[in-house]
Structure formats: structure tokens, C-alpha cells
Fold:
Amino acid sequence: MTIASWINLGIVIVYLVGMLGLGLWLARYIRGSDDYFIAGRSLNRWVICGSIMSTNVAALYLVGPAGNAFRVGAPLLLMAWSGNMLAAISAVTFLPRFRQLGLTTITELVQQVYGPRVSVCVSLLWIIFYALFSGVTMMACATIVTGAFGVPVAFHLPGLDTFETVTLVVAGVVVLYCLASGLLAVVYTDLLQSFLIIGGAVILLPLGIQAGGGLEALFDPDHMSPDRISPDKWVMWRPSGPDAGVDYLTILMLFVLGLPYWFTSQYMLQRSFAGKTVHEASKGLLWAAVLTGPLTLCYIVPAMAAGSNPEYQDLPGGADSILPLLAHRIMPVGLGGLFLAALVAASNSTASSYLNSLATLFRQDIHRPLYPESDDRSSLGVGRVVTVLAGLVGLGYAIFSHRIESTLLDSAWSIGSIFQPTLFVVVAAALFFRRATAAGGICCLLVGIAYTLCGAMGMWQWLGEDCGFGSTVLLGHFFDLDHTRPATRALVGMPLSGAVLLLVSLCTHRGEDAATTDLFNRMSYRRAGWTRRSLAGAIVAGVGLVTMIVFGFLDHRLPDSFRPWNVVGYLVVLTLFAAGMIFASDALLPVPEPETGELAPIERSWLARRLATGRAWAIVYGTAAVLVVVIYLLA
Structure:
């Protein structure tokens, strides 16, 4: 390790200790289990925006897509950008209905619609999924550390290699961080980290473009210039084929997996449940959708530029290590360390968010029904024990994924395509389908999870090829599909689960009872109504959405002279859609609730008064826009 590596690593360690100290300081505001699990419902839109941004674009969702862009180009920008569009839609459709019920966990709704058996099954599936997924974020953090600092091979424990040892250390930090003060610590440290991630983008984008050959590498009119990024790498929607890299099926999979992530995920919506009002929760989600679009591009472009630079080929840590490596090599010593520290800490808080969400599910849906007389102290104790156990499960999955040489995104998609499609169908039906029944919910879970799990294990291929079912007339096309591929499991699993739930529920429905009527009445609300401003926002959003869809059909047919302007076009229409939805939401959300005038203790702190404001965000983004130009000109 070089002197620069030690300096940057020292900054990362100091930063992590500081974040842990901040979490312990925030613990003074924990007065009960609601403060630990849903931050006392005290968050405003800017805290929610920062937490969602830090979670959605940091660590796994920067490191993994940057590694993919280094190899194949820009398509995975659509993972973030389509997700932003889904977030904006969720903010005015699913979220208000959840908030009308005053939920702590989504499975409370599942229990009211389907009964306790389905609710417990859904909770257990989510707990398993979140525990495994926390391991993917631990892998992302270990990738940052090993990729940027070149940790010596001699640094390892018996039976583990260097990467696995670093992952073990990361897991310990994650669990301690999560135990400190729950969701309250996660969201406010996320807010700080989002500002640092924006600062890192400001420095990395111009320096990364310069390191990759300057603007000529992006816009050189000579398409055959060896210094220019290949125009093919800017194509977003690609026909399927062996050379596609990321084809249209993968993009469609990302859209399908984005539905449960943004619409029904306890992990993501828990921040919105913690909002002061439904308007604060929805506007926080909408602002995050607007602000993360350009930020993601700032990290993908330098990775693509490095992919065409011979100096960055044959990376020791694999393609996933390109982003931390760029940050370490081309950013000034100290600033690079601070940015890497923010990535590491954001990765920690993302893993902590998953652990906090599963602990909330266990406490609310399993422990509390079994022990209804337990007090807040015992609930907190149980939540913390579950957090530690789930952290160990995540660590095990991280080590397993590393040993089979799975990339970050492949590790995430492998488990996401097993659990998420079916869970989304069950929750969405609970919100909107009055005839959903317990039998429909159970059959949906059994068939949906059985299909995806068997697909991941290769059993459908075995039945088709070795047992001869592939030659059957009706089933031949099904067995011809590659069910080991996450895209296939997601694209088949979600409609299959929906069809099973619909058919079984219609067959077993015996008429709507009073409880169902009351539930849907409580979810309904009176909208504020349309104004000129909200109508104009809806028109802008509609134009953006239609244009985005049209782009999808035309993108791969555009001439090379349009590259990379096609990507800029995608970003513009995405921003138009999300910004339009901010104004349209005034008409689509419930009539605003009257302000109580009461402030939670955390809202009186200097942290909330100085940083959790729209003014702070405007200053950060305005300064960032100016610095990008200045740094590029001076580099």
C-alpha cells in the first residue's frame, strides 16, 4: 500500500468512527420502539430524499452498475432511471394508501386482508430476503475497500481470503451501526452521506472524463477514432444476443424487480412510513427521483471512459472495482478518501437499513403476536438479537457469492428474482383487489416461490431435458426457457403469481365482509383537486413518459452521430417526468393534514435545522453544477 492509500484509508476509518459516534449521539432521541423502528414519524421530505438518494445510488447501485458500464456501456443507467420513474408513480399511488392505514410494516395490511398465516409467511420470506441482500451490500463495501486500497494478501483470517476477511470486518461494523439507534441514525447519516456522494460526483466526473481522453472521447465527430468511446456502448435498449452485454430482457427484468423495490418494499417504504405526513413522505420520494438522475450519470460516464483507456484494463479486483479505483487514483488525496468513506458508510447504512427493516418485521409480525404483553424494552432487545443473526446470514451469503465468483449485480438479481415478484403480487392485491382471499394468497406464495426457487436450482432444465417433459406439446416452450437466468424468473414469475392469486381468489371468494369494506374505506381518501399548476405538471409528466417509451423503440435504430446525445435525451425526459409529478402530486395526494405545531426532539437539533432543509439542497446542487465546469477546465 502506498502513502496515499494509507492516508485515504485513515480517512475512511476516521469517518466510519465518526458516523458510529453520530449514531450513538442520535440514540439520545430514542424514547421508545417507534423511535427505533420508524424514527418516531418525524422525518420531513428533505431527510427522506437524502436517505433514499444515499441508499439508491450509493455502494451497490453505483459500484455494480459502474462495473457493468466499464465492460458493456450505458444500458444499466436504465436501472436507476426507470427506478426513479417508478418511485414517482409509487409516491402518488401506493404510498398514500399505505399511509392512510398508519402502518409500521406492510405485512400489517397483509394480515388484515389474508389473515395471520399469509402474513407470517410473507414476513418470513421478507426476513430471509433482506438478510441475504444485506450480504450483497457487505460485498459492495468490501469491494470498495479492497479495490481502492490494495489490501495486502497477507491480511486474512484462517480459512478466509483477504476479501472475505474484509467482508467479515464490514459485517461487524454494519451490525454495530444498526444496533446504535435504528432507523433514526440511518436516515440522518444517509443525509450527510448524500451530500458527500454529490461532492464526489462533482470531482470524479470532470477528472474521469479527462483521464479517459477528454470530451473528445465522448463527442469526437470521427466515429472510428480510437480515442472515442464506441458508439455501441451508448445504446440503451439492445436486441437480445450473445454480444448484447445487457439486452432488453435484462432491462425489462429491472423494471419488474423495480416494482416491488419501489412500491411494496418494507425496506424502502419504511422511510416513508417515518414521514411526518403523507405529503412529506411522498414529496421526499419525488424529490429523490428528480435529483438522483444526473447523479447516476456522473458515475457511469467516468467508468465508461476508463473502459476505453488501456491503463485500466485487467483490474485485479474485477470490473466492479473500477469506481473505487478511479476515486483513489484520480481524485486528490484526502478528497478521494472522503468520497470513498462516504461510499463505504452509505454501503453500511444500506445494509443496516435492510437489517432494521427485517428486525421491524420480526418484532411487529412474529414476536408481538406471540408475546402481546411485552414492553418496549423487550421488543428492542428481540429486534437487536434478530439484527445480529440476520447479519451473520448476510455475511454467509457474501462469502458464498465471492467463492462462486458472482458479481455484485448478479448476486443481487439472483435472490431478488426468487422472492420479489411473488411478494409484490401479494401486497399489491391486498391494496387494490377486494376479492383477494387467504387461499389465493397461500397458493400465490406456494406456486410463485416454488417456480422461482426451482428455476434458480436448475430443476426446470432437469425436468425438461433429463425427464423428457421438454418434448411435451403444451409444455415444450416453457422448458425451452432458461429459468436459471434471473430475467426469465422475474418475467415469468410475476404474471404466474398474479394469475394464480386471481384465479384462486375468484374461485374461493364468498362475498365481501364488513372488515374488508372497512379496510378499503380507510384506504380511500379525498384528493386535493386539480389546479392550473398541478394540471401543467401532469401534462409535462405525461409528455416525459410517452417520450421515454418512444425512445425505447427508437434507441438502437439511431445513427452513431446521435451518440451519446441519446443518453442525454433519456435524462431530460426522465427529469421532466419526475419534476412534472412533483406538481401533479398536489392534486393526486390526499387533502393536506393540518399542522399540529409539535416538533419531535430530533427536529430541534442543529442537524435537522441546518441540513434537513430545501435551502441546503439548493446550495449543494448549485455549487456542484459550478464546480463540475471549473474542475474540468482546471484539470
Observations:
- The radius of gyration is 24 Å.
